[in-house]
Amino acid sequence: MTKLFVGGIPEDMDEIELTDIFKEFGGVVAANIVREKRTQKSRRYGFVEMDTEESAQQAVNLLHGGSIDDKEISVKPVIPGLKKTQFVVGKRKLEFSKKKPKSPAFKKTSSRKDKRPRIGK
């Protein structure tokens, strides 16, 4: 089974219509359109799982860059094991960090001995 990413689908499309489009290239195991949690409005991308790798490759070759209702769609195979903080450029898998750099305004002192002694009341 091969999973495909489908981006740029129309907002009014549902899973059944998405399945019908991909059935022309082979067996469709599952189709899912990603939606917002509160409003259930389409986020205009989804995933289709095809039964064979050959049918998935044929769908990618013929549908990538095509259009549905005058909207250009993108169809790409999902790379297994790719995390949200990783992306692929050519044949290289790159990773980026979401950590913010530390502020140089706050310096950590080595110990309290270097400073004046505290005066108690």
TrEMBL record:
<dbReference type="InterPro" id="IPR000504">
    <property type="entry name" value="RRM_dom"/>
</dbReference>
<dbReference type="GO" id="GO:0003729">
    <property type="term" value="F:mRNA binding"/>
</dbReference>
<feature type="domain" description="RRM">
    <location>
        <begin position="2"/>
        <end position="80"/>
    </location>
</feature>
<feature type="compositionally biased region" description="Basic residues">
    <location>
        <begin position="109"/>
        <end position="121"/>
    </location>
</feature>
<keyword id="KW-0694">RNA-binding</keyword>
<dbReference type="InterPro" id="IPR050502">
    <property type="entry name" value="Euk_RNA-bind_prot"/>
</dbReference>
<dbReference type="InterPro" id="IPR012677">
    <property type="entry name" value="Nucleotide-bd_a/b_plait_sf"/>
</dbReference>
<protein>
    <submittedName>
        <fullName>RNA-binding protein</fullName>
    </submittedName>
</protein>
<dbReference type="Pfam" id="PF00076">
    <property type="entry name" value="RRM_1"/>
</dbReference>
<dbReference type="InterPro" id="IPR035979">
    <property type="entry name" value="RBD_domain_sf"/>
</dbReference>
<feature type="region of interest" description="Disordered">
    <location>
        <begin position="96"/>
        <end position="121"/>
    </location>
</feature>
